[in-house]
Amino acid sequence: MKIVIAPDSFKESLAAEQVAKAIKRGFEKAIPSVVCSLCPVGDGGEGTVDAIRHSLDLEEQWQEVTGPFGLKEEMRYFQKDKRAFFEVADLVGLGKIPQEKRDPLHIQTRGIGELICHLVNQGMKEIYIGVGGTASNDGGIGIAAGLGYRFYDKKRYELPACGQTLLEFESVSKDDLYGIPEDVQIRILADVESPLCGHQGATYTFGKQKGLAPALFETVDHAMHRFYEKFSPSTLSLKGAGAGGGIAAGLCAFAEASIVPGIDTCLDLIDFDKKVADADLVIVGEGRLDSQSFAGKAPIGVAKRTPNGVPVIA
Questions:
Q1: How many CA atoms lie within 13 A of 59 on its CB side?
Q2: Could you report the per-residue pLDDT of 127-181, keeping only the tens digit for each?
Q3: Which of 29, 103, 127, 292 has a Cα-to-Cα distance from 156 of 20 to 30 A?
Q4: What share of the chain is helix, strand, coil (3-state, %, to 5)?
Q5: Rounded (5°) CA angle 178-134-77
Q6: DSSP string of 213-275, one letter each residue
């Protein structure tokens, strides 16, 4: 009996590979003759790159960027040839931010834009970015700042690269803008299909779990909408732009990125269809199964790619 074990990470608890190994131990106790194929996956949320790095034999690298509280820190990425991978959660993930410091309007994502500039300067032609699991809710303004945009308030004071700036900015400077070359493809591995704004958008759907008070939802959502009406109106209708607290929107609007289904892209990269072709059973899982699981999350994505007739257990 061959069992393919293909879980996502369990948020703030276990990486996908650790989950898969734990499930394998259980099956081997119960069915000594079982053959378990470990196939940890990710849908664009935290742990996605870790899930695929071994399949692609990626090389780990580090680069200094601006951290979530404005201080410089090292951020990892992975590369092979002209292809690079990184996760936003490695810099501003919920698991990286202590409970007492969780304030999604003040978490800075400027470092993501800085890392993109570094990768382009290093000659990367394909950049894959996992945007799920963030502690920020900045509508992508941090990406813009990292690429050279500067935002100012009414008194012409420069504002930090965080969500609070959405509520205060009055003008913008493009003097230091970094242009992404046309031959560089940036792909966003999105784990949700949420739009940027509205009651199904970034703020209303994910703001509370990041520490944003519900009383601020309407104000923040309106500020995001106003920002994109000014800079990139078409982004407001993009499915998946709300991923990562709006980081996906910023990448599309300011870095010419495209949104791709995180789980399907991951499964393609790790050659999942071949691994599951002769399976008798597939096991999936994530930290919490709920209604959001049907909107682009890993367990459903794996189930859809499993051959007809093969049971899938979550």
A1: 6
A2: 999 998 899 999 999 999 999 999 999 999 999 989 999 999 999 998 889 989 9
A3: 103
A4: 40, 20, 40
A5: 55
A6: -GGGHHHHHHHHHHHHHHH-GGGGG-TTTTGGGGHHHHHHHHH--EEEEHHHHHHHHTTHHHH
| Residue 228: C-alpha distances to residues 43, 179, 201, 235 (Å) | 26, 19, 14, 7
Helix axes 48-56, 262-269, angle to 10 degrees: 20
CA 226 to chain centre: 24
Looking up tokens 């784990």, which residue turns up?
Answer: 191
Give the pairing type, strands 258-261 and 185-190: parallel
Residue with tokens 């989950």: 19
The number of beta carbons lying within 10 Å of the beta carbon of residue 78 is 20
Burial class (CB in 10 A: 0-12, 13-18, 19+), 32: exposed
Q: Provide φ and ψ at 265, rounded to 5°.
A: -65, -40
Distance CA 128, CA 188 (A): 6
Tell me: the pLDDT tens digits for 48-74?
888 888 778 899 999 999 999 999 999
CB 29 within 8 A of CB 63: no
Q: Which two tokens stand for residue 176?
A: 């230091």
CA angle 158, 159, 163 (to 5 degrees): 165
Q: Are 314 and 307 in contact (CB under 8 A)?
A: no
As given in the structure block, the two tokens for residue 145 are: 């700042």
- Give the separation between CA 117 and CA 111, rounded to whole angstroms: 10
Q: Specify the DSSP element, H or E, that contains 21.
A: helix 16-30
Contact 59, 79 (CB under 8 A): yes
